[in-house]
Amino acid sequence: MANYIDILEPTPQKSRPASQPIVPKKNRWYLWVIALVCVLGAIWLVTHRGPAGSDAAAGKTAGRGAGGPVPVVAGTVQQKDVPIYLEGIGTIQALNTVTVRARVDGQLEKVAFTEGQDVKAGDVLAIIDQAPYKAAVEQAQAKQNQDQAQLSNAKLDLDRYTDLVGKKVISSQQFDTQKALVAQYDATVRNDAAAVESARVNLNYTTIVSPIDGRTGIRLVDQGNIVHASDQTGLVVITQLHPISLVFTLPEQSLNDIHKEMAASGQELDVLAMGRDNKTKLDAGKLSVIDNQIDTTTGTIKLKATFDNEDLQLWPGQFINAHLLLTTRKAGLVVPASVIQHGPNGTYAFVIQDDQTVQIRPVKVVRKENGEIAQSDTGEALIEDGLAAGEKVVVDGQYKLQAGSKISINQPAAAAGAGGHPGGHSGQGGGHRQGSELK
């Protein structure tokens, strides 16, 4: 019985340590609040990030052109005669430049030209005070007349002595002395004539004339100043503008090609003077001189071309892009420069198929000496291999394309033909102007 009672009695509880606090159950409600907030936050993130992620994925897919045709601008491979140019940079130089200086000393009495005036050879530019030089001429002439009179008298005496010496009236010595006196006076008269001519020359120098046809520059000396023959500044500078020269340089590698073409044609090569934009044609001339040596410091050869410059589009000191017409390639294939794309394996183009899909086609283009793609002055690239005449190619919009991509042409091929597309620059490097030479 005692054991039964022991079993029914409640087991005494273990005593709680004094240091452990008793937490009432009614204060644990805030834990449930925190858990609820976390659950609601997770639900909010899932509901709001889902649409944004979908939009980004959709945008990425659309960027690859998936989900519909990619809009592009198309062009046509054209076949035509293409001029081959060598391009260099040069400076316009006057064919003749003259600094007009005084050749005698004196006061500048008159300035007979206006600044910037076109003058002809022989036109009066200025006049120096002539009074002292006129007096010098008269003085020389008077001295000449005096000596001429003495010469005439000596000749008369010589004639008399000739008769007398024959009659043995005078000695031969007297006759010889008179003969020598005549020769002396004759030399003096000749010297006087030269002095007169020198005085007249100096008098003529007081009238300063233009030595060449050209245009006057800014006046360097004003009227009323004393000028000297030793002055270095001069009165004015005259430059000849018709014709005019262009001095430019080309890489030495071009020299053999130039000699070859000149020997084959037997004529001077054409040279175009282009503006700073490398598009505006200022004038056309002829190659006149190839320098007789190569610059070893730059590896270039200097050439000179001559232009008529009738419209005065060329001016001394002006920087010009020179285009030397080397030859013309007959029936060459050309496309807009933006058609050419660059990849790890070289240049390529997107060719449009009949089913309105695109094919990636490797192409070979004509390049310049520095490796850049050569272009004509109308922005066309010359194709050596990879394309055929009449094929349609993508001119703009290549950055959205892949091999086999479906496309829609935004512009008729006829309007976007070679050299006439209005599209922007390609995202893969096409469409940037590299120059105007096709070599």
Summed up, what is this model?
The protein is an alpha+beta fold and 439 residues long. Helix content is 28%, strand content 31%.
CATH class of the domain at 87-95 and 242-327: Mainly Beta
The main pleated sheet reads as:
6 strands, antiparallel, barrel
Alpha-beta content class: alpha+beta
Spatial order of the strands forming the largest sheet: 2-11-14-13-12-15
Q: How many separate helices?
A: 5
Features:
439 residues; alpha+beta; Elongation Factor Tu (Ef-tu), domain 3; OB fold (Dihydrolipoamide Acetyltransferase, E2P); Helix Hairpins; six-stranded antiparallel barrel; 5 helices; disordered N terminus
Structure report:
- The protein is an alpha+beta fold and 439 residues long.
- Among the domains are: 87-95 and 242-327, Elongation Factor Tu (Ef-tu), domain 3 (Beta Barrel), CATH 2.40.30.170; 104-128 and 208-239, OB fold (Dihydrolipoamide Acetyltransferase, E2P) (Beta Barrel); 130-205, Helix Hairpins, CATH 1.10.287.
- 28% of the residues lie in helices and 31% in strands.
- The chain has helices at 2-8, 29-63, 131-166, 172-205, 254-265; strands spanning 70-76, 78-94, 97-100, 106-111, 118-119, 124-128, 207-209, 214-216, 226-227, 236-239, 244-251, 270-274, 281-295, 300-307, 319-336, 341-343, 346-352, 358-362, 364-365, 380-385, 392-396, 407-409.
- The strands form 5 sheets. Strands 2-11-14-13-12-15 form a 6-stranded antiparallel barrel.
- The radius of gyration is 49 Å and the shape is elongated.
Blueprint (SSEs and pairs):
Layout: H1 2-8, H2 29-63, E1 70-76, E2 78-94, E3 97-100, E4 106-111, E5 118-119, E6 124-128, H3 131-166, H4 172-205, E7 207-209, E8 214-216, E9 226-227, E10 236-239, E11 244-251, H5 254-265, E12 270-274, E13 281-295, E14 300-307, E15 319-336, E16 341-343, E17 346-352, E18 358-362, E19 364-365, E20 380-385, E21 392-396, E22 407-409
Parallel strand pairs: 1-22
Antiparallel strand pairs: 1-21, 2-11, 2-15, 3-10, 4-6, 4-9, 5-8, 6-7, 8-10, 11-14, 12-13, 12-15, 13-14, 15-20, 16-17, 17-18, 19-20
